[in-house]
Each structure stands twice: as structure tokens, then as C-alpha cells.
Design a protein that fits this description.
Elements lengths: L1 E6 L2 E10 L1 H16 L4 E11 L5 H5 L9 E5 L3 H7 L5 E4 L2 H9 L3
Amino acid sequence: MRLLAEAPSRLWMAAGGTLGVTTQRQLRQWLHDHAEDGYRKFFLDLRELRCADGALAGELCALFPRIADARFHLIGAPDRIRDCVIGDERFTLHTAPDTAWWQWAHGS
């Protein structure tokens, strides 16, 4: 996980590798800690992230803090993560960084 940009109330992070038991815990803690610190918009570049075999949908959904005003922009999220967030208004799915970057630049 790498923090790439920070602005008032929003963060841009990239994650790569395999999302297994240990990395799920680390990513979840990072997101929850920053949400507790007042960040509400998370731009997460997940194009290089793979879900480990056996990762359960409930565990993947638990990565993201359940804060009503939090918003998550997921860029290139693996199918298993996309499947668990579809229909949740807190999430915007992007296939490439350009649309997410436009929203970042305009404070959306």
C-alpha cells in the first residue's frame, strides 16, 4: 500500500499484490484509522491487487468503514470486491484512473 496524494478530507492510495488474511487486516486498519482521523473520500487504485483464494465476500466488504458520509472511488477493483460493493451508494467504480482523477481534481 502506498499513499500517493493527500488533500483536506481525501486520500489517494494504491495497493498491489495479493489481498490475503494479513494484508486484509492491514488495509482495513489503514482505512478505518484514516476515517477516524476525518478523511471521508478515499481514492483507491486497486488495479494491481488480487484477492487470495478463499477470501470471503463478507471479509472483503468489511475492509471499508461503515461511515455514512464516507465515499470510496475504486479504480480497477478486482471482481470479488466490485461484487460486494455494487448497489452501495458510497462507492464509485472506475475502470481507469482518469475519471477518478477528474473527480479528485474537482473535489468530488
